Amino acid sequence: MSDSPVASDDPGSDDGETSHVVTAFLRNRGEVLLLRRSDSVGTYRGQWGGVSGFAEGQPDEQVRVEIREETGLEADDVSLVRSGRPITFADPALEREWAVHPYLFDCETHEIRLSDEHDAFEWVPPTAMLASVGDDRETVPELWTAYERVAPTVRSIAADGEHGAAYLSLRALEVLRDRAGVLVAERTEFGADPDGEWDELAELAGRILEARPSMAVLRNRTNRVMADANRGAGDGAAVLESAISTIDFALDADEDAAATASERFEDSVATLSRSGTVLEALERGEPSRVFVAESRPAREGIDVAERLSERTPSTVTVHTDAAIAHVLAREDIDRVAVGADTVLPDGSVVNKTGTRALAVAADREGIPVSVVATTDKVSTREGVSLESGERSAVYDGDASLDVLNPTFDVTPAECVTEFVTERGTLDPVDIGAVAAELRDLEEW
Length: 444
What we know:
Layout (H helix, E strand, L loop, with lengths): L17 E11 L2 E7 L10 E2 L1 E4 L4 H13 L6 E6 L3 E5 L4 E12 L10 E7 L18 H8 L3 H6 L5 H21 L1 H4 L3 H18 L4 H16 L4 H27 L5 E5 L3 H10 L3 E5 L6 H12 L3 E5 L4 H7 L4 E4 L3 E2 L5 E4 L2 H11 L3 E4 L35 E4 L6 E4 L2 E3 L4 H9 L5
Parallel strand pairs: 1-7, 9-10, 9-12, 10-11, 12-15, 15-17
Antiparallel strand pairs: 1-2, 1-4, 2-3, 2-8, 5-7, 6-7, 13-14, 14-16, 17-18
Helix pairs in contact: 4-6, 4-7, 4-8, 6-7, 7-8, 8-9, 11-12
């Protein structure tokens, strides 16, 4: 918690008052930023914490001020994931009561600039905050409690309607990692219980699998963690190690798929929705022109178009979803690029509604369709459960109308030219063999 070395200068330092502070956890590649407090601060010198500071005004505003001052990161470099309920606790040594307002932000870079309030920083798995799990670094009081208030949960994964399957699969791995870390840390007090740890984590993995049953990548990556751990010691420590390594494996696979795809995006490309892997590939490939369907109801295609216009020299054009076939027929488009929520064993693709229309129209015009996705998005199941959006997103009037708002559709395999993956390019007929590999992970 950044503060003045002179106690009388600290807000809320009068007897009987509570000092309100903000603590932000910045997350990048599944790791969080920890900062070591320097000798220039008044409390908890030499201890590790998040980005912190006194909440002199509104905490939601102050936390962004602290991020800029303590890391040099600007507003565009971070995005708020969630805030949590404040944690109130007393520190008898300081004769002070604290109220900590926790926040979690996603951060696009590991590069930061320290202020004089800290003398070192590290990007580490959050479980490094736990005694006996990390490197015995001393943390400020209640740091792990603050993190737990904003960490991903099974419930937050189930309720997330904004992010894609790959993003949510990483959050699922973080849930497993964090709980495994707690169980390992509890060994100091309660002793090791390998069977009990495994049973608890297996039950948690089961709940994660049920949270988003339509997302194959979430299932496959969860199964990979548990299968790898079961081949090892089959306890909390094995799950912790496997979850951390699988997060790295997943992120590397996403980057490799994007790198492979970028080599194919040199001319004019049409896309829709917001696939992080497709977006990265377009940024790397810098095609001459990009057509982006607006992708209602959330219109995430507009966000993609704005980002591309800011970060690439490409000419970017947005259009309505209804104009997809017209645009492909009238404009000079060399390739269609889409992501995938799930790839079925027969090579058909489950993705944001509108993907089928785009692929069918492209097939009609003789335009190749590239599906950019890691092989972890291949489903082991033949069937698919398609999620639907809110009725009010289509119609919120008073008439007695039935409303359809499918958020996903299925594109036939015959409309897909290739799958661009971390393994290179695959034909639709190759997907069945990938599905067979992934079924082996389900036996844990």
